């Protein structure tokens, strides 16, 4: 087992394992293409972000009640604890549910109950509300306002889904509102989109962390900026393999370059039910493929804590 770590890049909808998918589909009377867990898993074969997002979105249809969300969260937090996660900052996509007629309260209160349960077992855990960038800035503002009465249930906002064609600058206003509310700000950038998306996330949205950020390496001035300002990159190796946002061999993953460049990188799982592993699997596989020594593994874990939004005193206790 891996040592303690912080999971800072995981989408709760991406933790929907086939067995829970089938159970919830039956419970809620939702049609699935197949109810065979192995056949379902076989549909989890992607070569790019959009192919994955289509399956991910279709499967969210089984999530309907606060109980469903609580169960999804509960399964994730238990698996995460077994992976050595002592701090979890978990993304959720309210628009994926609200647009199907699910009340936002069911989403947030259901996940919130799972967060409370995880905390009662000793984990440090919080939620981050993500905007689906392909639905545009007005829809983002609308869901943000709908979520404001539940403000004490999440600590920040993020930006995910289809990247290319939906640059961060579109979301200037809603990120300004989030900042005014004292919320943390992160954004997916430089996953499929170029370095210009990472610049915009920093300059226009004022994000504190970049999710993925792999393509920042194409721009030396950007690499210098990320290093000098200590901006965290949450890197997801098995996701990069599955979505072809890194070379097809883990042994050619850019993680060592990121570390050599002095970037504040840490390892995360993104959508573990779809990409073949939780954070412990990601850590083990990069360690083996890239032959990382104990000192580097310790640094990756320390980076995850330093990059987290946990209270300073908690972070000091972990590093
Ligand atoms: N990228 C963009 N959107 C997402 C992802 C991702 O890796 N996972 C879930 N939504
Ligand atoms: Zn992601």
Automatic annotation (TrEMBL):
Record's keyword annotation contains Oxidoreductase: no
A molecular-function term among this protein's GO annotations: adenine deaminase activity
Record Pfam families: A_deaminase
HAMAP family: Adenine_deaminase
Protein family per UniProt: Belongs to the metallo-dependent hydrolases superfamily. Adenosine and AMP deaminases family. Adenine deaminase type 2 subfamily.
Domain Adenosine deaminase: 4-316
Active site (UniProt): 191
Amino acids binding Zn(2+): 9, 11, 188, 270
Cofactor(s) the record lists: Zn(2+)
Reactions mediated catalytically: adenine + H2O + H(+) = hypoxanthine + NH4(+)
One GO CC term, this protein: cytosol
Entry coiled-coil feature ranges: none
Annotated site (Important for catalytic activity): 212
Assigned EC number: 3.5.4.2
Role description: Catalyzes the hydrolytic deamination of adenine to hypoxanthine. Plays an important role in the purine salvage pathway and in nitrogen catabolism.
Keywords, comma-separated and alphabetical: Hydrolase, Metal-binding, Nucleotide metabolism, Zinc
Protein name: Adenine deaminase
Listed InterPro entries: A_deaminase_dom, ADE, Ado/ade_deaminase, Metal_Hydrolase
Cofactor binding, per record: Binds 1 zinc ion per subunit.
Annotated positions binding substrate: 271
A single GO BP: hypoxanthine salvage
């Amino acid at each position: 087992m891996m040592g303690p770590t912080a999971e800072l890049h995981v989408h709760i909808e991406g933790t929907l394992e086939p067995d829970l998918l089938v159970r919830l589909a039956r419970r809620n009377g939702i049609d699935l293409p197949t109810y065979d867990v192995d056949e379902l898993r076989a549909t989890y074969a992607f070569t790019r972000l959009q192919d994955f997002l289509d399956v991910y979105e279709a499967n969210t249809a089984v999530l309907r009640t606060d109980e469903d969300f609580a169960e999804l969260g509960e399964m994730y937090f238990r698996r995460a604890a077994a992976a050595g996660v002592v701090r979890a900052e978990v993304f959720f996509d309210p628009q994926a549910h609200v647009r199907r007629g699910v009340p936002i309260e069911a989403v947030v209160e259901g996940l919130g109950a799972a967060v409370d349960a995880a905390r009662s077992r000793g984990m440090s855990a919080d939620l981050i509300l993500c905007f689906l960038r392909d639905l545009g800035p007005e829809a983002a503002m609308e869901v943000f306002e709908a979520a404001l009465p539940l403000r004490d249930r999440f600590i920040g906002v993020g930006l995910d889904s289809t990247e290319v064609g939906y640059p961060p600058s579109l979301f200037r206003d809603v990120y300004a509102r989030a900042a005014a509310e004292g919320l943390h700000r992160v954004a997916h950038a430089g996953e499929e989109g170029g370095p210009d998306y990472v610049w915009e996330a920093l300059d226009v949205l004022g994000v504190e962390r970049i999710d993925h950020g792999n393509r920042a390496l194409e721009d030396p001035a950007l690499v210098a900026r990320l290093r000098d300002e200590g901006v965290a990159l949450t890197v997801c190796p098995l996701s990069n393999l599955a979505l072809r946002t890194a070379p097809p061999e883990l042994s050619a993953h850019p993680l060592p370059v990121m570390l050599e460049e002095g970037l504040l990188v840490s390892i995360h799982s993104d959508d573990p039910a779809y990409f073949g592993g939780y954070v412990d699997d990601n850590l083990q596989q990069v360690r083996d493929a890239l032959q990382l020594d104990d000192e580097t593994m310790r640094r990756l874990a320390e980076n995850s804590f330093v990059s987290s939004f946990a209270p300073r005193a908690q972070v000091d206790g972990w590093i």
